[in-house]
Specification:
Blueprint: E1 7-10, E2 13-16, H1 27-44, H2 63-71, E3 79-87, H3 114-130, E4 140-141, E5 147-155, H4 159-176, E6 182-186, H5 188-198, H6 202-222, H7 229-253, H8 259-288, H9 294-321, H10 329-358, H11 383-393, H12 395-410, H13 431-442, E7 451-455, H14 459-467, E8 472-480, E9 485-491, H15 498-510, E10 517-520, H16 522-556, H17 560-588, H18 597-627, H19 629-656, H20 664-696
Antiparallel strand pairs: 1-2, 3-5, 3-6, 4-5, 7-9, 7-10, 8-9
Amino acid sequence: MPLTTGQSRDNGRRTVSKRSYPSRTTAWLGALLPLVGALAVMATLGEAPVPAGATDQLPDDTGSTRAVALQQELPEDDATTAVAVFTTGPATSDAPDDQTDEGSGATSGRSLDRAVLAQLQRAVDDIRADLALPPGPPVVPSEDGTAALAVLTLPAGGSADTADLVGDLRAALDDTVPTGVSAQVTGPAAVEADLSAVFDGADGTLLLTTASVVALLLVLTYRSPVLWLIPLIVVGVADRLAAVVATQALAGLGVAWDESTVGILSVLVFGAGTDYALLLISRYRDELKATEDRYAAMRRATARTADAVLSSAATVVVGLLTLTLSLFPTTRGLGVACAIGVVIAAAFALLVLPAALVLFGRWVFWPRVPHLGDPQLVDGRGPWRRVGDSVAGRPAVFVLASIALLAALASGILAINTGLSGADQFLDKPEAITAGERLAESFPAGTADPVQVLTRDQPDAVRAAVDEVAGVVRADVSARSPEVAQVDVIIEAGPGSVNARDTVTALRDALAGLEDTYVGGTDAQLVDSQDTAARDRVLILPLIAALVLVALMLLLRSLVAPVLLVLTVLATYLASLGLSWWLFTEVFGFEALDVGVPLLAFVFLVALGVDYNIFLVTRAREEATTRGAAAGMLRALTATGGVITSAGILLAAVFAVLGVLPLVVLAQLGIVICVGVLLDTLLVRTVVVPALGVWLGDRFWWPRRQPSPLQGADT
């Protein structure tokens, strides 16, 4: 930690030597060189492109992953499927059938007659020729006569290539279908294209929204027309540098990531970096009230902030790196990327921000300019001191009441249902989803996205076994090579439903005796994702809690305080998950929680929740050396209450920004973390931890012994 070159203790206060960083001669270099270097790295390298591996999104070594591996051995392994859906109205319509527009052959009622079907077949054949698509099966009408479908094979490429081709297909269908017939495209290719469209310009939108939210909250916090620009610029550069370094590192290490990784990374860097900046600037403002020289004030503020920031960052990084134990490739990538981001955010907060701030005079705080001799926060009599006095009056009551409230909120976790289907992934349903739902009204629900069975065994044996499974409509061999065959199984159950998952399980049981035979497809991937996510939670959640506990023990050199702090963070997590589930079901209308949300929310909430406790208790430990344990905790609350509350509200708002992307998983993750951070900031850190510190006194720090309070020191 190259922050100081010498320290001494004088009457309980650290004195930082004039050779420490920043100084008048090093401030310009400390501010400009890292910023210029970061810009040079960004201009030279840029973000690495998102990899397009076939199994990057799938759990390691599961049936669906092995099915994809076998699928790559087929001659058509580089192909994907789109389903064109032709309709004249809902299947439930009572309009008369077989009505056509005279002279055109187009339908004007609710039935697709032979003439219209012939027109549709010609249109599909022309589109296949124009788009250079291979021949395929004919247009198939539904039994109710209100719909027809055509399966088209598209060459598989990157998400952008698939999206472009699906767009061309949709445009061509709109131009060629008969009057009165609507055409939509669904199937795996269309879902991939619509999912890709979600991220078109998403990074820019997310970055702009995040920066705007941070800027607004910084202005409200500092009430200064200038000050907010400095941390915003420093953190903004750190964010862009983190995106470049993280993606290049992942590409170099061969670790997978997806389109959402950079968005989550950006939110985390902005949130954590701004929190560190708020803590440093608050301490700097306080030191300016006791020190005439702003360079000396910054050296003291940096030295006193560094322990909390470095401890916090180290805890977050350790927590994030546990994600490398996940069986999901992209989850491992997210953990590595976010760990890199937090390191960069902490480095910019402790090295670049102090130098940038100290270049300006006290006037940068205008109109609330700190003057020598002004009362410091810790000596104030504002709202946080009044909160502390209330907590100190009846600490046991506050602790027990808070526990009861958190337990009531956490009760919602008993009703949580996990597992989002493809249709549930989007906040606003795209065409691929609405077309799939319409298709299910006239055809078996699994027609658009059949279950795929990949085998090295005899395909006839596979079909015979599949036909015996309840819920199977039809099974056809769709592709084969000398070694591998693919059997597409159309099932009755709708995609993503409980019945679909049960059918997948039944298929796997029926095929268990066949050699190298695996069940894949969207529903199989959902089943494997649920099982794998449960395994990840069982392994990673306790490990994170244990690592955070050890980190706090090393930092505080105590046993009781770390255990209590970890318990409060765990209680916050459970309460936020329970309260969020109520919001999801009663307010937002979500029927399920994405399988990855509980784990990611735990990582971020535990790591970030401990942050605020570290900020509080490190200051409490500092104050306790001269004031005693109970009084030290109250003075710490008085000094840090405002800045930590501002940081918590800012972090909660930043994570809520994930909701600007129309993906349910990101909206859910943002809401859970937002709720959890607010609970931690406004209840746990404000009431529960101070109440425990006052209630237990010196026992809170056991076995570390606190020195006796100075004689005559007021509390």
